[in-house]
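Standup notes
- HV: blocked on the assembly model, inputs below
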Amino acid sequence: MAAISFYGGVGTVTGSKYLLEHNGKKVLVDCGLFQGLKELRERNWQEPPFNPREIDAVIITHAHIDHTGYLPRLVKSGFKGKVYTSRATCDLLKILLPDSGRLQEEEADYRNRKGLTRHEIALPLYDENDANAALRLLVPIANDGNAVEIVEGFKAYFNVAGHIMGASLVLVEMENARENGDSIKFLFSGDLGHYDQPIVKDPTAPTFADYVMVESTYGNRLHGDESSEDQMADVINEAAKNNQPILIPAFAIGRTQEILYLIRELEEAEKIPVLPVRVDSPMAAQATQVYNRFQEEHDEEYASILTQKRHPLRTGSMLTTSSRADSMKLNDEKGTRIIISASGMMTGGRVLHHAMRVLPNENATLVFVGYQAAGTTGRKILDGDREVKIFKEWIPVRCHVRRIEGFSAHADWKAVLRWLEGLQNTPQMLFTTHGEPDAAEAMAGHVRERFGWNVHVPSYGETIELE
Ligand SMILES: [Zn+2]
């Protein structure tokens, strides 16, 4: 008897973990960290609702920490199987997971220094060594739809999901799962990209599936029509007129590359002058190298730029800084320049050093290109705070603050329906996950209304038999 259990990514967009059981084997699809609300984050510290030693294999849909950040903890708790994921995701995880380990160590140090722990010594959830141990279990898979043997009785097919570099939608085939000897095919959308997103291909159309799981991040919202290109061109041209810097806080993997791609396009279309672009993030520098590595991930335009021996993520006058010394040198620069630095919500990282100079400058511009979660420095500035605390110092906010909408790596609900249209059969059941409760319910409603399918919104810890 086959079954699926939902141990994350339900009622929330974080902590994705779905456990398939069949043929006496257990396969975990995604192994994400819970983030955000305290009651969710505490789950990272509780005993998991399954025994990590009994998991035979893990399948990872994409590199984002809410799908992968629990992997080092799983390994630390005794998981010894293999971790199957796309080749590009493997390379991105080599950058992300050790960094996540260092962040966990820093957080534990901080709690110890501040006496914030109820325990004698606060320990990290995992450290850099645990992250490296997890990396040794990775098995890189081509994101091209070919069958991959996972464990006995399980086959998987990885295809481009279009969400970020390396993201896969994964069809898991459980062989001999029915009494008549037929297999059960379960399709996981992972996080779905939207159509016509730059750099990566559109999501691969599904073909046949007995069960489907779709994400519902935007289950109750639609992306606006306003073009992020035009907004970005306006911001840059205005700053150029004033001969002043622009600071763009951006996540090092994904958003930074999208911004670079866009700036290069605007330069080539002569919609903006060629200005110095400074990418100040060691992680971004490494991630950008991964982007050109795997042809199977690129959309036509990206591929065609590469064939012309040009770099799609290189603007006309660009400098990438990895070392601290090079980063410091940026402080001496004058005039208009575009500084892109992490973290994207200004919760840490080098962007804070730049912010200390840019925020008090009434002619400079701070541009937000991503979601700013409640409580972050980015959110406070966006909400109009005139002063923010950075490195224990109160910094006045006098610069222009702009927000550019339209950068999202997620399909909205209409795009999810468009994707589902490719399915050539009526699935036995569809599950909506990876959404806040309202969004998951709304997505379920859209699918019922459009296709009349049997849809279920799972709850945390629920197990459903597949037959
Ligand atoms: Zn994601």
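- HV (later): unblocked. The first strand starts at residue 2 and ends at 6. The radius of gyration is 22 Å.
- Next: hand off to the docking folks.
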